[in-house]
Amino acid sequence: MPSLRAHVFDWIIRWQVKPKLARAAGDVAATRRIFNQASFPEPPGIVFRPAEIGGIPGEWAERPGLAPDAPRLFYLHGGGFIGCSPRTHRPLTGAFAVRGFRVFCPDYRLAPEHPFPAALDDAAAAWSAFAAAGPAGIAGDSAGGNLSLALMLRARRDGLPLPSAAVLFSPSTDMLGEGDSMRTNARRDAMFDPAKLQDLVGAYLAGHDPADPLASPLRGDLSGLPPLLFHVGAREVLRDDSVRFAEKARRAGVSATVTVWPVVPHVWQFAQTFLPEARRSLSEASAFLKSHARTPEAVR
Description:
Layout: H1 4-23, H2 28-37, E1 47-53, E2 56-62, E3 72-76, H3 90-98, E4 102-106, H4 118-132, E5 137-141, H5 143-158, E6 166-169, H6 181-184, H7 194-205, E7 228-233, H8 239-251, E8 256-261, H9 276-291
Parallel strand pairs: 3-4, 3-5, 5-6, 6-7, 7-8
Antiparallel strand pairs: 1-2, 2-4
Helix pairs in contact: 4-5
């Protein structure tokens, strides 16, 4: 049963964020400002430090005193491909760090100044160097979930190491927007109007084919991917991007689990200090990643 706080948080997003995004429709700069202004508390006791991996700037999130063999996580932040950064996503990277991960979040280039495939190129460059240092998991939310899945398809194509497992929070997987939830949840989604999402797609793709599997991972060959865990809200327009991907992945022989959470809005995990569903989601995601973690010794 959803908590009372889930209903309150859904109401806050519906009446404070969705109208702002509606007014900003078609204005990438205004939408970026809204995304970048999102403010949630950072987990206490976590050290955030700038770094560069594979020539790509980013940020480590770590809990002091971690053991050298602590699990490693490569986190790709969301933001509609046009906004946000490692700093805006410290509540999420920090939450994984609290739970014992050593987390790197690359600061990939953003559209429309740097359209497809710039963000994916940056993710691939950083992942190649990150994975060379040892086994790791991947996680991402929203647009970062899209990049996480596209990165795995590209890594498989290019012979790069695949992650031990991946966690996807409300990812976008189909740039053509053909999931039924785009229609059935158009009024129920607390944050997004499906028509407005096309502005972000256009800014990112800049005329590129939306059916390209590296833009719409749902359209790709999913065989050989590592275990996947999807968390998505029942009311989200992006709900079926997760459900359909998990179904197709299972048909391809991939272990894929999707949990559809009632009431909660898009990427509710940000509200972990307030929302019990956010803490549960992050804890379940962490347990999933740890259950599939491989130590360097295990792969020698």
